[in-house]
UniProtKB/TrEMBL annotation:
Signal peptide: none annotated. Keywords: Membrane, NAD, Oxidoreductase, Transmembrane, Transmembrane helix. This is Aldehyde dehydrogenase. The keyword Iron does not apply. Belongs to the aldehyde dehydrogenase family. It holds the Pfam family Aldedh. It comes from the Eukaryota. The keyword Transmembrane helix applies. The active site is at residues 218, 257.
Length: 512
């Protein structure tokens, strides 16, 4: 395959201006047009699924079946879900009933924010690019895509899909590295969605601040932000927990932003859990894992070397794996037991197939340790005890809180996904929540002459001002004071006001 052609930096302002001009025509506001583009997006991925799988294998060493399961099919599913529901999502809504304002017809219009920028990472270069694109198309935005240059083969296939299947008035794509991103951030966008490292997230936030551009961030690699697993050995199914946790750590060679990053388990249960992990590992890889066609590679030698340093410097005991070949970007699934909280494996988010196990005294110590670090993107609990689960969830903070499962919540239909604090901002990605990320809620009001708002509620807004009129306008039904009994609703007043409003409307119409 020929090297990926980078977009000339000098072309980017022109592309941006063309998207801006296309948005101003109002073309993308048509829901029928959006559905047409969503169908094209779904079929573009379906028709090229084999090419995408091969490209991902070339870029990431990822097994094609794993790419279908975790990247390609979920992205197609996002386009299909948006296609099926965009008419409902985009429908103008009535506000809740309020007698004072009902005649004014308050409504909420769902309108596209405008021209948006989506910057995707290398680890899931389909779902975290084209999945987000489905949300932006559903909202009616014009979109510029910037895929990760670390996956050049995948970038080429995605570029072909965008240029061959989608309307260039709505969607464009640029390829490149730092100079391209730098130029993109010089321009004004109506929303920026970024998934990736914390350092770049800060750069993007500062660039967006120049224009007060809203941003949605899902951030990996911030200092001390790691997704923990808490295990209740008294009730948890340890064999099942071991299989699911180990799978969450080996999928895409651990290069998953929601992968379990460390395990907290009572000291007396560590031996039993390690044994179950070893059994699960044997069932996954009966032969040499380095030769398995069911295991991925690390994206670059630099990242492989980083993980190797964690393993080399750990003071814990390696009980599974430990082998690393930086040149071929191979890192074996590795489990380290008896890890302390200041160990090399606990410095940052690992983003690789390395799982430290930290023995703790009890769940209280586990919660204390979790809260001593920055807010994780995901938090996992394995237990059958509802009280145990509630205690962990109620006393911690995370982007997502998941029981007896790992990772798959990202693709759960109808559930938002996003970080909080250092792990990101905004619940986005799936379904309606992705649509809302790129949507402006535009309030509308149409106040007729006969409306009681002017004759009763806001009559006192016109000079000359009087205390009596002011009191009438500012009269608010207050909640009861603390410790006081709640009073009954003043239905009589409401009925009188309703009657007066109805009569005034009839009389006004008769005059006309």
């Amino acid at each position: 395959m020929a090297p990926l052609a980078y977009t000339p930096v000098e072309d980017i302002p022109k592309i941006h201006a063309e998207l801006r001009q296309a948005f101003r025509t109002g073309k993308t506001k048509s829901v029928a047009y959006r559905k047409e583009q969503l169908a094209q997006l779904a079929w573009g991925q379906k028709d090229n699924a084999t090419r995408l799988g091969e490209a991902l294998q070339q870029d990431l060493g990822r097994p094609p079946i794993e790419s279908d399961l975790l990247d390609i099919n979920p992205s197609i599913g996002e386009a299909k879900d948006a296609y099926d529901n965009v008419e409902k999502w985009a429908r103008t809504e009535k506000t809740r009933f309020d007698f004072n304002w009902f005649a004014s017809g308050p409504r909420i219009r769902k309108e596209p924010k405008g021209v948006v920028l989506i910057i995707a990472p290398f680890n899931f270069p389909i779902l975290l690019l084209l999945g987000h694109l489905a949300s932006a198309i559903a909202a009616g935005c014009c979109v510029l895509l910037k895929p990760s240059e670390l996956c050049p083969a995948t970038c080429q296939v995605v570029t072909d899909i965008v240029t061959q299947y989608l309307d260039p008035d709505m969607v464009r794509i640029v390829n490149g590295d730092v100079p391209v991103v730098t130029q993109l951030l010089e321009l004004q966008w109506d929303h920026i969605l970024y998934t990736g490292g914390g350092r770049v997230a800060k750069i993007i936030s500062m660039a967006a601040a120049k224009f007060l551009t809203p941003v949605t961030l899902e951030v990996r690699f911030p200092h001390h932000r790691k997704s923990p697993v808490v295990i209740d050995p008294k009730t948890a199914d340890l064999p099942l927990a071991a299989r699911r946790i180990l799978w969450g750590k080996i999928a895409n060679a651990g290069q998953v932003c929601t992968a379990p990053d460390y395990v907290l388990i009572p000291r007396e249960a560590q031996d039993a859990f390690v044994k179950e992990l070893q059994e699960a590992y044997k069932s996954f890889y009966a032969e040499d894992v380095a030769k398995s066609d069911s295991y991925s590679r690390i994206v670059s030698q630099a990242h492989a070397a980083r993980i190797k340093r964690y393993i080399d410097e750990t003071k814990g005991k390696v009980v599974i794996g430990g082998a690393v070949d930086v040149e071929t970007r191979f890192v074996a699934p590795t489990v380290v037991r008896d890890v302390s909280f200041d160990d090399s494996t606990m410095e940052d988010e690992i983003f690789g197939p390395l799982l430290p196990i930290i023995p703790v005294r009890d769940v209280d110590e586990a919660i204390e340790l979790i809260n001593s670090r920055e807010t994780p993107l995901s938090l996992y609990v394995f237990t059958k005890d509802a009280a145990f689960k509630a205690k962990v969830f109620d006393n911690t903070q995370s982007g997502a809180a998941i029981a007896n499962e790992v990772v798959i919540h990202v693709g759960t239909t109808g559930m938002p996904f996003g970080g909080v604090g250092p792990s990101g901002s905004g619940g986005y990605l799936t379904g309606k929540y992705g649509f809302e990320t790129f949507t402006h809620l535009r309030g509308t009001l149409d106040n007729p002459k006969w409306c009681a708002v002017d004759t009763l509620v806001l009559k006192g807004r016109y000079p000359p001002y009087t205390v009596k009129n002011l009191r009438r306008m500012l009269k608010v039904s207050m909640p009861p004071r603390a410790g006081a009994r709640a009073g009954g609703k003043r239905w009589g007043l409401w009925l009188v006001l309703a009657l007066v409003g109805a009569v005034s409307a009839v009389l006004t119409r008769r005059r006309v």
